[in-house]
Amino acid sequence: MFDSFVRQVREIYQTDAFIPLHEPRFVGNEKQYLLNVIDSTFVSSVGPYVAEFENKIADYCGVKHAVATVNGTAALHIALLLAGVESGEEVITQAVTFVATCNAINYCGAEPVFVDIDADTLGLSASAVAEFLAHHCERFDDGVYNKISGKRIAACLPMHTFGHPCDMTGLLRVCEEYGIPIVEDAAEALGSWVSGVERKHCGSFGKLGVLSFNGNKIITTGGGGMILTNDDALAKQAKHLTTTAKLPHAWKFEHDQVGYNYRMPNLNAALGLAQLEQLPNFVERKRALAVRYLDWAHANGAQVVVEPSGTQANYWLNALLLDDLTQRDAFLEYSNAQGVMTRPLWELMPDLSMYRYCQTDGLSQSRRLAQRLVNVPSSVIL
Ligand SMILES: Cc1ncc(COP(=O)(O)O)c(C=O)c1O
Q1: CA-to-CA distance for 334 and 336, rounded, in angstroms?
Q2: How much distance in Å is there from the Cα of 135 to the middle of ligand 1?
Q3: Alpha carbons 40 and 2: distance in angstroms, whole number
């Protein structure tokens, strides 16, 4: 099976050279828009491309507002602050995520509490959150408190793993019941949708949502992120906080709070606009790639991660599920030695030294997934 996998990937990418996990593709107006920016001299935080990129992302995702940032981590930091997360509080999140999710919680002076995922979505489980809240938390007039730590649960932060949408309907039901705001980490999920009466984009369900345009994402701005929200006041605050909290004035430099220099430069937004023009094409090609992996899996008795029912995923990163840790490690050794890059799931967050002290609910699905999953090459095939 290992050998057949490597042959399949080489056939897909039509090369004998090293095959990376994810490479960006620049096949549209990228060079032209970047040259326009350089010619205009507006390479930094002032310039027309930022607002245009924000408007087009908001339109695509079906939200009222999008506020561009220097990266997805900064977007998460601001989104959590705007959701009301304060120092000494807790945020419910998943152990299966990239470290930025937890770091952003930490930047607010808060701590993550790790609750398990659903095996079909790879994202935060609504039933596990409900169980955690029912058994470990108490409601008071000013919010929900963790009975063990005594800390307020300030927010819930689900992450759409590899672009596969979480059970947002279930999570919204539970969090609304307890009055807990949701911030969605949709860093990996641009182009991923949940079907239903109304088709909705990942990152548009919660009070705020966040995207990343890091070089490995489905579209890139080099580095960049976006805060999504339907709330006018939060959007205004997001722009203010990410722009050093500067009061608008033609020449005076006055700031009304400690803000952040988190605005996306015009240069990056230009790249983003050109990439956004390619997004429908990239999503289609990534979904076609996922079908090729699925066909291979069927023919070889292997298992791949497929989009949860009722969703349309961008298949940002494809993944295989091996039998166990021994087979996973043998697969990683073999494929990487053959020049086909594969990698395991991120170390679970509570296994990292910084988050080892954090409360968990046992994380049985998360631990099982961590032993079995490998990501496989997923660059868009042109
Ligand atoms: C799940 C998740 N959250 C947050 C981030 C942070 O985004 P950035 O690298 O743009 O800071 C990333 C990716 O990099 C991610 O995969």
Answers
A1: 6
A2: 31
A3: 52
Vertex 162 angle, CA 1 and 319, to 5°: 5
Structural tokens at position 14: 């039509």
Does the structure show a pLDDT above 90 at 368? yes
Q: Which residues of 182-192 are buried (b: 16+ CB within 10 A; e: fewer)?
A: bbbbbbbbbbb
Ligand 1 contact, 101 CB (< 6 A): yes
**Per the structure block, which two tokens stand in for 359?**
């409360």
Evaluate whether 193 touches 312 at the Cβ level (below 8 Å): yes
Distance 312 CA to ligand 1 centre (A): 21
Q: What is the pLDDT of residue 45?
A: 84
Residue 184 Cβ inside 6 Å of ligand 1? The answer reads no
How far apart CA 344 and CA 328 sit, in angstroms, is 8
Closest to 128 measured CA to CA, from 161, 84, 160, 175: 175
Written as six digits, the tokens of 1 are: 């099976």
Domains of the chain: 30-276 (3.40.640.10)
**CB count, 10 Å around CB of 381?**
14
pTM: 0.98
Nearest protein Cα to ligand 1, atom 12: 187
